[in-house]
Fold:
Amino acid sequence: MSAIRATAVTAAACAAVLTTALPSSAINSYNATPAPERTEVGALVATWDNDDDPTTPDRVDWVCSGTMIDTNTFLTAAHCTTDWPDNVRFYVSLDQDVQAGLDAAAAKYPGDPAAQANAVAVEGTAHNHPGYPGPASDTRDISVVEVPAARMAARWSYTPAALPTANQLGTGDLNSADWVVAGYGTQEAVRGPGGHTHPGGGVRMKAPVTFNALNPSWVRLGMTAPQGNGGACYGDSGGPNFVTLQGKRILAATTITGDGPCYATNVTYRLDTPGARSFLSPFVKLP
Structure:
């Protein structure tokens, strides 16, 4: 699942990376599998202007990952929804293969990014944490996209992810728990004549990861292959890291950053902290 990177680059830079990705599956090329059952996990799609006419969008792509946390709220990372041109519009897709959908839409609606986005996704409104970017101890790298619940339900069947209770990760047995990362991102680095590339992306995948460390705002997860892990990579930013505690699967944290080649560590933003819960409370009912 080295396709989930979750790097803390700007959304525009993330989009540039994805533009070069091959339309094949990821998260990574090792210990990862498709995740058609994780219907609450989606891709963040954007349209934006990339020429001298800002009145109409001329680019469309999926740019990050995320999770539905209630019927009209899609959770992702703030670095996915900031630093865009003024006319950016965000959409949420819960398709298993969003890249194939965009490819088909490009053929059906050539030169019409808005129509292409609407063919695979539902438009929403982004709300970034007002404190982003914060200090390294808590970057406040969290945002939500509010989408019309009726339109989402008309297109996809899903059960929103369960959020953790306050400080739940601080009281659970995280070492022995089962952890899974999911997202649409690219694969781990592949060396080629021009240097490293990150193939794949655009398909919802999942992979096991293992607990490394708990910090006040972060969960660090191992994604090394010899331990049977997969991992996150570019385009997995904002995507979910699930853990099963006391028999219940919860959305513990979101992918934010990690090592550049996407081989070793996924650094994820905790959702059980006072800061994360304070941001989320206006949008969802917290447990």
The first strand starts at residue 33 and ends at 34.
